[in-house]
Amino acid sequence: MSPSLATFTPALGPQPANAHFYSAHTTTLHMKEKVFSITGDDFTIKTVDGTEVCKCKGKVISLKDKKKFVGTDGKEIFTLGNKMLSIHKSFHAESPTGHDFEVHGHWKMIGSRSTVTFKNAADGNAVELEILGSWMDRSAEIKWGGRQVAHISRSFFNVREMFGDKQTYFVTVAPNVDLSMIAAICVSLDERENEDK
Fold first, then answer.
1. Please, which domain of life does this record's source organism belong to (predicted)?
2. Residues 31-56: tens digit of each pLDDT
């Protein structure tokens, strides 16, 4: 059963309004880690009906372990990298157009908690999202002021994935929410989990 998601007006996200990054309807993303990637960290982000939203390209050599997100036109949307000097694993997304955001890791006794901060491109307001989840349950929720922005679930019954250590994510995203940002949040959570193994 799909989670109950809020509808946001104006659009919610750091990137300016773009048909590839925002949908007027609830959207489910399918994020598949590439099976034969050289880096092991490349994702293609598509909707469940096969429409490509963007790609995440891991770099082979990088002191800061950065990952570049590019649109369907091949242009860079933002680069996601580790935030230096953070007590808990955190990430900074730097956009060539200045539409940056950060994913902050926080300590929690059970499960995991993170926050995402950015300036909303639609109205210029500062926004803080909360991510709560348990990777033992293979799920997480993203909320803003109690309203659900997205729900993340992970497929772990695929035999090829179990032996190849590759993951599939299904992310249900509320209408008018930046899909590229939600995809980056998933990558951040995956990076943090892999570091803790």
1. Eukaryota
2. 766 544 445 567 788 899 989 999 88
Check whether the bond before 16 is cis (ω within 30° of 0).
no
Q: Which are the contacts of 54, defined by CB distance < 8 A and separation ≥ 6?
A: 20, 21, 45, 69, 70, 71, 72, 77, 179, 180, 183
The total number of structural domains in the chain stands at 1
- Alpha-carbon distance of 104 to 195, in angstroms, equals 15
Structure tokens that stand for 137 in this block: 């349950």
> Which residue range(s) make up the domain with 131?
27-196
The token pair at 17 is: 């309004």
pLDDT digits (tens, 9 = 90+) for 63-97: 556 889 999 888 999 999 887 655 557 889 999 99
Q: Concatenate the DSSP letters of all residues of 54-83 into one string.
A: EEEEE-SS-TT--EEEE-TTS-EEEEEEEP
| Domain assignment present for 127 | yes
Report pTM: 0.84
